[in-house]
Amino acid sequence: MSVQLIRKAVPGVDEAIVEYVDGYLRENDFEDDEDAIADFVKPILLDAGGDEDKINKLCEHLTQVLLSNKKATAPAKLSKLEHSVTIGNQSGLSATVSLGRGSVDLEHASGRRVQSQVNQEKLRKAEAKIAAKMAKRNEKNNTRVEYEASRLLNEQKALQDEYKMYNPILDYTSTKGKNKDIKVENFDISFAGRRILTDANLTLAFGRRYGVVGKNGI
After folding, report:
1. Which of 35, 169, 174, 197 shows its CA 20 to 30 Å from the CA of 163?
2. CB neighbours (10 Å) of residue 148?
3. What are the residue ranges spanned by the domains of the chain?
4. Closest CA to 176 of 203, 206, 204
């Protein structure tokens, strides 16, 4: 029943994925955790290209159906054996005790093991396909994170280079212990056609402050 519901909710879904989900639902007990069905089914079908609203409705329907089936097939209460059991007959004891619990060991009762309805080879292929898709998605997410981090680092480096261009850091280590005074020798200053200074020398001592004084600023 779940196969038809899955195909209806996600048309065109890969057959291996349908059988994988159906096999998981058949072989697991969800009585203690009603959300387990949605937690398992929803990511797989979304990754297969299904519509989220339809998948949510599918999960709700599957939960109701499976839980109702579990309650209908719940183990019967303990009952008194109608016939005596020979202890030495181990296979008969195993089958009879299982009947008393409301379940039957098919391997002992029928003498053969009943094979699962799910094709194990297709299950393995479906699991491998799902694992490959998840790995590809994680690789894509990691690449995007690395790209964003690299872009931010490049932007930060560009800002630092631009800051250094307009605000150069002067290195005084090479002139340590040397004379840092500023000397200007043999210069002339003229104003309004009149020469004010001729062959003048100027020395600005390092660490002192200077200002311009006088009528003409000299």
Report:
1. 174
2. 10
3. 1-72+91-169, 178-218
4. 206
